[in-house]
From TrEMBL:
Residue ranges annotated for the Rhodopsin domain, each copy included: 31-266
Highest classification ranks of the organism: Eukaryota, Fungi, Dikarya, Ascomycota, Pezizomycotina
Residues annotated as transmembrane: 16-35, 47-72, 92-113, 125-146, 199-221
Identification of the protein by name: Rhodopsin domain-containing protein
Chief location of this protein within or outside the cell: membrane
Family named by the database record: Belongs to the SAT4 family.
Pfam families the record matches: Fung_rhodopsin (PF20684)
Swiss-Prot/TrEMBL keywords: Membrane, Transmembrane, Transmembrane helix
Length: 356
């Protein structure tokens, strides 16, 4: 039983999830910048803010990978003492980095709304949400930094002093986090629905903006994971929640980039349509060539039959008459079968009578 406990590990899951989400965030930001270049639009404050947000996402992902390297995802009792000290220092640094990253990404989205929707209520709502976000970031960062007296006790439990309830603090910062996400996502919905466009177009635009709902899901799911956190086994009980912090901020970058990639989607769609049309024309040309070849073959066959029937030799005339008799006595099934194949039967006898 002890052996199974010692061998328990979620480190591979933490590593793969962290790396995949970080790479996806990089890819989508590159697509956003490429779309700006294609449309010849200069980078705005929202773009610059999101670039800073991505850099912080990579820092947060790097710290999480370092935590995993030093034992996160295993039971604390199985981690060597010298590595345990480094792990707790990394965990201490992770929280304010994560909060700052999440706040910058939220502000980037609000700046994008300000640029795309220059409407009074969107501007006012954006300013209010930005102020709430900024206040949340500052207060939680200060709480995370000064959670213990002295500060070093946060990562060295052997020191004398006292600390706040870390679990309570994590729960307290989770609620305003996903609540502000919900309000940010809902802010432009009314304006989008009122656009002078078809129902399908409006639904499509709203769907793109609501892809950010995954950020809300990630934030809420991370919030539920906090309830399993135990100070007696930090490395094991905090591993999933910390990795989902990376998922949340990386998904925030991705969802902020999706609405701006529309020019690239249009270019790809036009390219696919053009390719499909070219293939269709090519198939029609090939089909037409086969039909013409078939027609030429039929014409040559008829010409050969005509040349045979024109023969004036008595023996040939006799054979033609015999052939005519044979054709006239063919069953309807045989005749229709030949006609169904696209061939035309010409009676030599009829041609002979016409010539007479």
């Amino acid at each position: 039983m002890t052996s199974d406990y010692d061998e328990q590990s979620t480190q591979s899951k933490q590593r793969v999830t962290t790396i995949v989400l970080a790479v996806l965030a990089i890819v989508f930001l590159c697509l956003r910048l490429l779309a700006r270049r294609v449309k010849k639009i200069h980078l705005g404050p929202d773009d610059v803010t999101l670039i800073v947000g991505l850099l912080l996402v990579l820092v947060v992902a790097g710290v999480n990978l370092a935590c995993v390297e030093y034992g996160m995802g295993r039971h604390t009792s199985t981690i060597p003492v010298d590595r345990e000290g480094t792990l707790f220092k990394l965990v201490y640094a992770f929280e304010p980095l994560y909060i700052t990253t999440a706040g910058i990404i939220k502000i980037s989205v609000l700046l994008m709304y300000h640029r795309i929707f220059p409407v009074r209520y969107v501007k006012i709502g954006g300013l209010i949400l930005a102020a709430i976000t900024l206040a949340w970031v500052i207060s939680i960062d200060l709480l995370a930094i000064f959670q213990c007296t002295p500060i070093a006790k946060a990562y060295d439990s052997t020191l004398p002093g006292h600390c706040i309830s870390l679990k309570g603090a994590l729960i307290g910062n989770g609620v305003p986090n996903f609540v502000t996400d919900i309000f940010i996502l809902a802010l432009p919905s009314k304006l989008i629905w009122g656009l002078q466009a078809s129902l399908w177009q409006r639904v499509s635009v709203i769907a793109v903006f609501l892809t950010g709902s995954f950020v809300v899901f990630a934030s809420i799911y991370r919030f539920t994971l906090i309830f399993s956190f135990e100070m007696t086994d930090v490395a094991w009980t905090l591993a999933d929640a910390q990795t989902w912090c990376v998922v949340e901020v990386a998904a925030g970058v991705i969802s902020a980039c999706l609405p701006t990639t529309a020019p690239l989607v249009k270019i790809c769609t036009r390219s696919l349509v053009s390719t499909a049309k070219s293939l269709s024309k090519s198939n029609l040309t090939q089909t037409g060539s086969r039909v013409l070849s078939r027609t030429d073959a039929t014409s040559r066959s008829i010409n050969v039959e005509n040349s045979i029937s024109i023969e004036t030799d008595d023996a040939h005339t006799h054979r033609a008459s015999s052939a005519s008799f044979a054709l006239e006595n063919m069953s309807p099934l045989s005749s229709s079968h030949l006609k169904g194949k696209g061939w035309t039967m010409i009676s030599a006898a009829e041609r002979e009578s016409d010539s007479n």
